[in-house]
């Protein structure tokens, strides 16, 4: 893994990209410039050779006249040399001085093969571009049947290419340095909010303060969305931590009572021996403790269970199984079909019926009403007022007129089951209801994130 920071990795990548781009562009430019300059020189050499050939054919006597062969090709003087058919020099330009063009392949080919051509030659320390062409046999001049060679120096072309190459390399280095500098400045500015987020996260990790939040930048870019997402995650974690703390505290409190009773009765039996009343109390305490642990485990399973499609469940058949054999319970209406965990849904309805029996009159009637995918359970008691209804589905909350040794977790389990199935719960007076999505909508509803099952309000 690289030890360089993200800022410097971006800077180096930008510099390398700019350097490669400029070098490639410069290389292409140099190639095009080289070809263009050499083609221009070749055209000038050929044009000058054509002029000399015309002169040799029309007025051959002028070839030996001083100044006739003088001229320029490119940015330098033209070096012209005319030879006869036996390769002897007939005339040459003054720019050659006492020098003679080398009898290279172009001149040899023009004399013997009667074809024109180009070649790169050297004349002393000077690099030349040579073009040679055969001369016709018309006329009575001394150059008839010979050849003309025209040469031009390539030093200016080499100097131009060398200067351009140096300029390209210097430009590439400067552009890469500027790209690296700008990348450092821009990434420093862009990463400054991330630095603040990192510092805030380190402070939260160091202090363990669940109420602290990460600083969110004022911009609406990806960093702001990241900060908002992380803060929302911290909110969720804080609620989960608080819920866990409350759950452990409440569970410890609720477990302490039956455990204390069991312990006291066990000490009594150890001292005085067992009698029927003490044994019955031991059995009742054990049953109460077992029921409480069962409810705690059921609630823990619902909290940990992931929403899944499950299997089709017929609410009519489920409700009949719940009310079967209980003379106090009346079933009305017709239910639809949902998809989910049949055993969990049955437990939810059983908890509602048990809750109605605990809060309603001892000899009162309990009504289970089905309306498609809505199941409501009512008793003949006075019901809950709005303030009590707001706490009805909280864990370990029990109504003031409840009878029996309930755990206070029955309705909390109902809510957890309903929300895992994408549904909701509600209470109005003495009527408690579960609303579930129909079978055709369950695939989308199960993807919803369940609300926190510990801090409830009025549905």
Question: What is the beta-strand fraction?
Answer: 15-25%
Topology pattern, helix = H, strand = E: HEEEEHEEEHHHEHEEHEEHHEEH
Overall shape: rod-shaped
Poorly predicted parts: 442-459
Helix amount = 40-55%
Distance between the termini: 52 Å
Question: Helical element count?
Answer: 10
Radius of gyration: 51 Å
Which CATH C-level class of the largest domain is it? Alpha Beta
Structural class: alpha+beta
Q: What kind of sheet is the major sheet?
A: 5 strands, antiparallel
Number of domains: 3
CATH topology of the largest domain: Beta-Lactamase
- Placed side by side, the strands forming the largest sheet appear as 4-3-7-6-5
The CATH homologous superfamily of the largest domain: PAS domain
Write the layout of secondary structure elements.
Elements: H1 6-58, E1 72-73, E2 76-77, E3 79-83, E4 89-92, H2 105-113, E5 117-123, E6 126-134, E7 147-153, H3 155-207, H4 222-272, H5 276-304, E8 311-314, H6 315-323, E9 329-335, E10 337-340, H7 342-359, E11 366-372, E12 374-378, H8 386-389, H9 410-420, E13 424-428, E14 431-435, H10 442-445
Parallel strand pairs: 9-11
Antiparallel strand pairs: 1-2, 3-4, 3-7, 5-6, 6-7, 8-10, 11-12, 12-14, 13-14
């Amino acid at each position: 893994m690289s030890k360089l920071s993200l800022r410097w990795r971006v800077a180096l990548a930008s510099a390398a990209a700019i350097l490669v781009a400029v070098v490639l562009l410069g290389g292409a430019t140099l190639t095009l410039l080289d070809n263009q300059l050499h083609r221009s020189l070749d055209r000038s050499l050929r044009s000058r050779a054509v002029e000399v050939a015309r002169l040799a054919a029309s007025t051959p006597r002028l070839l030996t006249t001083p100044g006739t062969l003088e001229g320029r090709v490119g940015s330098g003087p033209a070096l012209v040399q005319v030879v006869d058919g036996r390769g002897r020099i007939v005339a040459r330009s003054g720019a050659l001085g006492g020098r003679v063009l080398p009898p290279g392949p172009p001149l040899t080919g023009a004399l013997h093969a009667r074809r024109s051509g180009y070649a790169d030659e050297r004349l002393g320390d000077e690099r030349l571009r040579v073009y040679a062409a055969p001369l016709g046999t018309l006329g009575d001049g001394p150059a008839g049947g010979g050849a003309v060679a025209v040469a031009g120096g390539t030093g200016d072309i080499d100097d131009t290419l060398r200067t351009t190459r140096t300029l390209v390399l210097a430009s590439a280095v400067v552009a890469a340095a500027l790209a690296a500098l700008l990348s450092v400045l821009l990434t420093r500015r862009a990463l400054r909010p991330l630095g603040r987020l990192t510092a805030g996260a380190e402070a939260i990790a160091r202090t363990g303060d669940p109420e602290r939040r990460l600083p969110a930048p004022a911009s609406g870019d990806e960093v702001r969305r990241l900060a908002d997402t992380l803060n929302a995650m911290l909110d969720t974690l804080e609620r989960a931590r608080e819920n866990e703390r409350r759950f452990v505290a409440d569970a410890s409190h609720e477990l302490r009572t039956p455990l204390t009773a069991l312990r006291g009765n066990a000490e009594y039996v150890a001292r005085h021996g067992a009698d029927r009343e003490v044994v019955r109390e031991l059995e009742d305490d054990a049953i109460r403790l077992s029921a409480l642990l069962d409810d705690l485990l059921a609630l823990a399973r619902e909290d940990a269970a992931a929403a899944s499609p499950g299997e089709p469940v017929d609410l009519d058949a489920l409700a009949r199984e719940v009310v079967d054999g209980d003379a106090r319970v009346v079933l009305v209406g017709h239910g639809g079909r949902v998809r989910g965990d049949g055993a969990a849904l049955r437990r939810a309805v059983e908890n509602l019926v048990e809750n109605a029996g605990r809060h309603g009159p001892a000899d009162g009637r309990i009504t289970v009403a089905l309306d498609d995918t809505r199941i409501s359970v009512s008793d003949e008691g006075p019901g809950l007022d709005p303030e009590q209804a707001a706490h009805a589905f909280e864990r370990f909350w029990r109504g003031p007129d409840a009878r029996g040794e309930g755990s206070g977790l029955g309705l909390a389990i109902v809510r957890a089951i309903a929300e895992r199935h994408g549904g909701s719960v509600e209470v109005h007076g003495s009527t408690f209801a579960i609303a579930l999505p129909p079978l055709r909508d369950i695939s989308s509803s199960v993807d919803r994130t369940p609300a926190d099952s510990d801090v409830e309000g009025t549905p």
